[in-house]
Amino acid sequence: MKKVGILGGTFNPPHLGHLIIANEVQTHFNFDEIWFMPNQEPPHKDNTTAVNSLHRLKMVERAIADNSLFKIQSIELERSGRSYTLETMKLLTEKYDHEFYFIIGADMVEYLPKWYKIEELIQLVTFVGVNRPQYDQHSDYPIIHVDVPNIGISSRMIRERVKEGKNIRYFVPNTVIEYIEENRLYET
After folding, report:
1. pLDDT in tens, 2-28
2. Domains parsed from the chain with CATH numbers
3. Residues with Cβ within 8 Å of residue 8, at least 6 apart in sequence
4. Are 31 and 14 in contact (CB under 8 A)?
């Protein structure tokens, strides 16, 4: 049975922190693949700053193109409305005979009690929690913890830097910078 780690997010834009997390978790567990799963409309975030899903999908494609173990799972973009992990995982477990591990940052570890039908969800996936500066990794839910380098990069910070005309080199892959510039994303 294939072991697959899933890294969900808005990826607005994808940055080196996402790639480092995926790489560290894949290396730690020797997963067969890591699926980057851009979501349509996360229930816990204000979606007013998001660029459209096609742009986010294209940026993720560019960001992961040089790693054969990194794949895109676009199932959440194919549905409209809020993206609930439980509904997504039900669909994925019906479609694939894989063992799924859902990768979350420590900020989401703290938020797990508020996840939609969390008790049902923990029956479908194993959570992998990674450290994130200023967040606690403790949880009453079963989580496997993986230490990753603390990278203080956020998509919000990148969007703000672009809006202010600042350089984002070394925060995102060059291919993503090119895409942002070609499509004039985050400028306003």
Report:
1. 999 999 999 999 999 999 999 999 999
2. 2-151 (3.40.50.620)
3. 37, 38, 39, 76, 83, 85, 88, 102, 103
4. no
SS3 85: helix
Rounded Cα–Cα distance for residues 81 and 151 (Å): 31
Helices (H), the chain: 16-29, 53-64, 85-95, 106-111, 118-121, 155-163, 174-182
DSSP labels for 142-162? -EEEE--------HHHHHHHH
pLDDT tens sequence across 56-73: 999 999 999 999 999 999
What is the CA angle 39-40-46, rounded to 5? Answer: 95
pLDDT of 46 reads 56
The model's pTM: 0.91
| Strand 126-130 relative to strand 98-105, pairing | parallel
Cβ neighbours, 10 Å, residue 140? 7
**Nearest 5°: phi and psi at 157?**
-60, -40
